[in-house]
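hey team, just a heads up i'm posting the complex here instead of the shared drive bc the drive is being weird again. everything in one block, sequence lines first with there labels, then the predicted structure for the whole assembly after. its two chains so it's a bit long, scroll down
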Amino acid sequence: MRRTRVIPVLLLHQGGLVKTIKFKNPVYVGDPMNAVKIFNEKEIDEIVILDIDASRDKRGPDMQQVREIAGEAFIPLAYGGGISSVEHVKELFYIGVEKVILNYQAIHNPSLITEAAKLVGSQSVVASIDVKKNLFGNYKVYTKNGTENTNEDPVEFAKKMQDAGAGEIFLNVIERDGTFGGYDLDLLKKVSSGLNIPLIICGGAGSVDDFKQAVQHGASAVAAGSLFVFQRPHRAVLISYPSQDELKAKLYSVLQ
Amino acid sequence: MFVIINYGVGNLTSIQNMLKKSGVNALISGEPTAIAAATKILLPGMGHFDNCMQKLNESGLRPLIEKKALEEKIPVLGICVGLQMFMEDSEEGSEKGLGWVKGKTIRFKPEQMKEEEKIPNMGWLEIQAVKPSPILQELEGARFYFAHSFHVAPQNKSDILITAHYGYDFTAAVEYNNLVGVQFHPEKSHRFGMQLLKNFALNY
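-- predicted structure starts here --
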């Protein structure tokens, strides 16, 4: 049976976990350690933790906090936020992170991707690409939490990241973030078809059916934030994750 | 004493914490005295094969570890590149492996895959047991987390303990005498990883 990774994405902001809509208006959803313990028990596939303050505040990862989270995460943990040197990568691995996610540095210093891949292997280096349409309706790669337009084309940029040594692409579509409206399947298809490495799609998931469609459009793994921390319709905080039975019935079996 | 060898690579705290949750106290150490007193050894490994071999060789611990593994024959568990280091060499690099198990580590061969798969293999696969072992207790139908571009290819088929399917069936674990190595990451495979580490710590 072919499995697809289903990945919750947690955002760190001022020490707590938050969830955004279109990368804005962070709402507090809980304590990171508590959330990781709950996700452990739900036997999830993998977890992504992004510190959304670090690069903007021009600081490195909060190693103490990441260490505490990693020590409790009995699931693969990918961390992103403020990673700007090989030393950061080295330390993050030493404290128990499985993968590093680079965004700001991937754009401004792609050689860090190459150096990190040499050190820890490309399977553990993820290039994160935040995408938004510019005023002319063209997809562009953004950074700094979606505030800085790099003018890079996402399809070309993803290839560049692959060539630099990234083992995986994390494609986050800003305008879908927190909307429950489904993934951007057209963009997903365009980006993934140019790649040999796996692509994780993020932004807009509202159901297991969205996961299925994403895989059918070229995603190797699917990620979501709001879907796993909010209960609709009132966005009440409730951590959830689809059961193995649900994933088997609605996702894996359909993809045989 | 259960010793997790610290030679400067690997996710050691999560292995230790997972063992602790199963009631097993393991020591993370690169001290010769601690390793000399070990009754069980876990050999971690992550990242580039050459980097791991160089670090292990530079640590000065290799003769001691080889004495424990090959002369005293205490149980040794290799994880990920830790397993790959058991072999004679690796297509990933130019360093020689430990050569404890005959065979080599090879890159996934896309041309041999029945289904097209991306490399690296990142994700969860169900395992198939090839031969019985105390380390497999209560792991029927288990799935484990993999993150790798290379896998081992033992020369003697009798050393293959577990296979998994990614484009084709590949060796996901070997067992040769007191040596057992797994390509996947038990410390990141929640319930199943905890069971495997517990099996190694208590029943092996």
